[in-house]
Amino acid sequence: MHVLITGANGFVGQALTKHILSQGCVGDRRVSRLTLLDRQFDGGLVDQSTDGLVVEHQGGDLADDQWLKDTLGRFPMDVIFHLASIPGGMAEQNDELGRRVNIDATMTLLEICKAQTELTGRKPVFVFASSIAVFGIMPDWVSDNTPLKPQMSYGAHKVVGEVMVNDFSRRGWIDGRSLRLPGVLARPPAETGQLSAFLSDIIREVSQGHAFVCPMSAESKTWASSLPNIIENLLHGAAVEESKLKSNRTFTLPTLCFSMAQMVDAIGLVYQQNANELVSYEPNPMIEKLFGCFPLLETLAADKVGFRHDVDLNNLVRRALFKGH
């Protein structure tokens, strides 16, 4: 089986790559070729080809449609994890770049899949990493039927991707699955353009006994999952049988809803720190509006086909810093 990961050098992409390399399979199918796409690669993702598994790194501009077609036209693909994107803050600052990567590159990938299916009859599974940013302004209760009202370009781009994945699946050109990812914890300290980076920083800093200024109030509520949980759900998304999906190709992943005060308590309990003394609160109105007003969440469609959350907040903060993804 040939697996493609776009955005393979990113936080989630690296963890997914390492998991597939360690297990050698996706679901119950063995992986024989793993193609990794990103603009560039860190030293950590070195060539790890082994007997029976060829790993290929391709560095380039995903917004260059000819490069994508030339790179991916050599070997038929079985599973695609499309993780690459220009995230929220960066997409707001650079509208053209956001659209080229988040919309144009997604469309090029879908067209490549269509051409493969029409030429060979080999229809790839297309796992699209969408985002809870599609919701934007939320009501008091979010379910599978909640209208989408994105408040940032990134969320709007993801809505476009979801619609096209559904349409290409309807036409029989791909076996698509769009997974709306919540905040993923805990990201390493880096300038990624992610406005929600503080949710990772607070776990990393307070777990080490460092003081932290939280940009949201103690009562503000958000959604998040650990990185291992997200990897499990991405792999499940690729492995679940198409017959179980029917016409529904978009899933809001189950995740935990909690207040910042609850998160601080969990960090203190799991890492044996006096967290309430280490954390002070200086709410930023913009940050709190974007990430601190999340309501209760119901994910019946995702639950039904086997997607899962972290069980509880203690488990989330414990797994967030676990290195053996």
Automatic annotation (TrEMBL):
<dbReference type="Pfam" id="PF01370">
    <property type="entry name" value="Epimerase"/>
</dbReference>
<protein>
    <submittedName>
        <fullName>NAD-dependent epimerase/dehydratase family protein</fullName>
    </submittedName>
</protein>
<keyword id="KW-0119">Carbohydrate metabolism</keyword>
<keyword id="KW-0521">NADP</keyword>
<dbReference type="InterPro" id="IPR001509">
    <property type="entry name" value="Epimerase_deHydtase"/>
</dbReference>
<feature type="domain" description="NAD-dependent epimerase/dehydratase">
    <location>
        <begin position="3"/>
        <end position="212"/>
    </location>
</feature>
<dbReference type="InterPro" id="IPR036291">
    <property type="entry name" value="NAD(P)-bd_dom_sf"/>
</dbReference>
